[in-house]
């Protein structure tokens, strides 16, 4: 956290930045108020970089559009019904995206969660309707005056999340703010105050009236933060996860005195943290990987349904990979994730145990090829997920698993260099199969192709002549019934 003096300097620098200064001057010349609001003000005071420029004004949407059009390369009014106009504004060599919204005094209808839009004429009521005090601060420009009617500065200094109005009123207006509390706790490293957290628990069931799309969006934003564990634990402890993502709290399995196994819930959160660590080390500076993070969080959700208490105190979870893959597909579909995300996350969960067979005995080159083929474009993510899944406190066991995976990755690299494994194909394509066997397109060509592919995976490249000889022999044996 930067000092208050540093925060004020940062706010002045933000106000003087080329695009902000240009927009502020245009609104002042037109006789309207303008203020930066929410995230940009908060992040400037925290010393964090900000990429969003959100403004609020007493100008109407039509007046906003009239003022920004001469300043901008393009404009959009998709949020016009809610008072928001967006634009790309250039100032010298700098171009930024801005969103400018008319002062609001809206409320929610309590049933559909759609806001009943009512434009306001002053800044303070607009700030009161915002989610948290740290987001309810504004910087009036061009005069550079901080407006903080609800103690946002004090909450920034104490790193506290609190609502401007009572939590019951705020969450009653929009229950999604309860999930935002979890997200901001992870994103900012702040603590949700006791009254706000108590309201989250008491009002958790009201999240059901929020649209699935908004819920999914907030969950994704939480997972894409640097420390999603904090927010996930808050969702679970408040009861919100029981509604939004019930498979996660279900991981808190009861452990009796006779049957012992690791805490699957805490293990899953640790796997998520470790996967993020691998992601950052392998791809520093790149955007967070939602698919990997979803897979890490959900990789063991098949365990509750497959837990068996064995004689002697052992606990088994046979086929929890396959069961978990199906459960993840069902949940992510219900949350309306896109098809590619659903496919990739469920596939990673299905494959996440495959590596552990490698530690039980040396894999043949054929087994390594199949591992690569089955993972396909998810191979690197599977590497990271599998490594992250090692959370044992037994250093010798952890080292053994780590060395085994190092060896597997080295063998994959070696085979890839030799054979270009990522594009493994049979030595003969469909046209060649038809020519060699003298058959027409149909089911038999597909059978021959799959047989040649298995042969290729087992033995590596054969060359066309040898592949043709083997294909003739297979075809003769097939047709003779041998």
UniProtKB/TrEMBL annotation:
CDD domains: HDc (cd00077), NT_ClassII-CCAase (cd05398). Residues 398-425 form a coiled coil. Residues 260-403 form the HD/PDEase domain. GO terms for molecular function: ATP binding; CCA tRNA nucleotidyltransferase activity; metal ion binding; RNA binding. Its cofactor is Mg(2+). It comes from the Bacteria. Keywords: ATP-binding, Coiled coil, Magnesium, Metal-binding, Nucleotide-binding, Nucleotidyltransferase, RNA repair, RNA-binding, Transferase, tRNA processing. GO terms for biological process: RNA repair; tRNA processing. The keyword Cell inner membrane does not apply. Its EC number is 2.7.7.72. This is CCA tRNA nucleotidyltransferase. It comes from Mycetocola manganoxydans.
